[in-house]
Amino acid sequence: AKICDFGLSQEKFSPFLRDPSTGAKGTPLWMAPEVLRLEPFNEKCDVYSLGILLWCLATGDEPYEDFEEFEPFFRAVCYDDVRPPIPKDLLPSLAKLIEECWHPDSKKRPSCGQIVQTLYHVMIEVAVHDKDGIEFWKENCLDRQSIYWDDFMDLFLEDYVYLPDEPTQKQIEEAQPFQLSEYSSRNLKHASVVAAEWKRRFGSSTAPANIAELEQEFEVKLKCFKTLIVTEGPGDAEMVDLEKFGDVLQWFGPIRDEDGEVRILDRVAEVLGNEGFHGDITAPKAQELLNAYKEPGMYLVRFSSLHGQYAITHLNAEKVPNHHRISCKLGKGFYFREKYYPTITGLIEAVTPVLGLTKPCPGSKYQSIFSGVGTDYLYKNTL
């Protein structure tokens, strides 16, 4: 990262300053109206400049390009309150911050501390598009760009997977066995509630004989999630950073479906459990893998270079690699030929006759996760 500024135009000796009558010090396009008018000013003039700078960063444009002469520019900015146009598709929270920063009344501009707090929210909303994901990061990691994996998973499970301390009877009755097992382990009161539920379901107050297997299946789903979302931090620490969190939600979100159920871990495991899925490999790497076999119809599925999108790479009848981008929409699934497919299995079944697919390319790095467990159970709980 590189950081630069305009340099110090004026040392601050008092709360209010005034430029000399010979002219304002600074760059006019970024200067606050009160500075241009040679009026007393304070640190809020820098807030104005930051607003202009944020606009430039958001749009990629230079401010006030319509003005070719200083006098019309001066009148427009200083007396008509003209500002650069805010794009309609700009993130609302960022647009609001920019407009507050360049407010004509310097007293109504936010303080630097307020700007920092607002920027925390803006950065989260830029990186994460899922509403539950935004809420999760704001509540737990507002001023952080990353969090330790263990802390992240504890918070995630508490918010979205495990039963609350005081669940309703309906939540108890609809809970999966691993959820009941975890709830039972908290204290004796919870254990008695779970024992009653075991008795209702199975006629015995003890956990079902296959509870260890069910818990192992859940652990596999967590391992899949971890494999995707964890990045290496200082000292080889396992971290979850904001940008990667947003990417994973783009590919596998939402966290909470329209019916209120949380199925993201199921979707992650279903995709990674497919032997044709190779994840974050590049198009050249995909071609290299397929060319090693030279079998027409062999294919693999991977993440596209575009956020939230996938790609199918396969060898055609002439053994030439072809790439097909597959869009994926939050809550609907994979889109192919005007239809959504909620699972990767359904997608592959749909594209197979169209692309002439035959068999998946071996060598997916994710298959070792399912060693000794298999993948049949994955297809019961996806969308």
UniProtKB/TrEMBL annotation:
<keyword id="KW-0727">SH2 domain</keyword>
<dbReference type="GO" id="GO:0005524">
    <property type="term" value="F:ATP binding"/>
</dbReference>
<dbReference type="InterPro" id="IPR011009">
    <property type="entry name" value="Kinase-like_dom_sf"/>
</dbReference>
<feature type="domain" description="SH2">
    <location>
        <begin position="276"/>
        <end position="349"/>
    </location>
</feature>
<protein>
    <recommendedName>
        <fullName>SH2 domain-containing protein</fullName>
    </recommendedName>
</protein>
<keyword id="KW-0808">Transferase</keyword>
<dbReference type="InterPro" id="IPR036860">
    <property type="entry name" value="SH2_dom_sf"/>
</dbReference>
<keyword id="KW-0829">Tyrosine-protein kinase</keyword>
<dbReference type="InterPro" id="IPR000719">
    <property type="entry name" value="Prot_kinase_dom"/>
</dbReference>
<dbReference type="InterPro" id="IPR051681">
    <property type="entry name" value="Ser/Thr_Kinases-Pseudokinases"/>
</dbReference>
<feature type="domain" description="Protein kinase">
    <location>
        <begin position="1"/>
        <end position="124"/>
    </location>
</feature>
<keyword id="KW-0067">ATP-binding</keyword>
<dbReference type="GO" id="GO:0004674">
    <property type="term" value="F:protein serine/threonine kinase activity"/>
</dbReference>
<dbReference type="InterPro" id="IPR001245">
    <property type="entry name" value="Ser-Thr/Tyr_kinase_cat_dom"/>
</dbReference>
<dbReference type="GO" id="GO:0004713">
    <property type="term" value="F:protein tyrosine kinase activity"/>
</dbReference>
<dbReference type="InterPro" id="IPR000980">
    <property type="entry name" value="SH2"/>
</dbReference>
<keyword id="KW-0547">Nucleotide-binding</keyword>
<dbReference type="Pfam" id="PF00017">
    <property type="entry name" value="SH2"/>
</dbReference>
<keyword id="KW-0418">Kinase</keyword>
<dbReference type="Pfam" id="PF07714">
    <property type="entry name" value="PK_Tyr_Ser-Thr"/>
</dbReference>
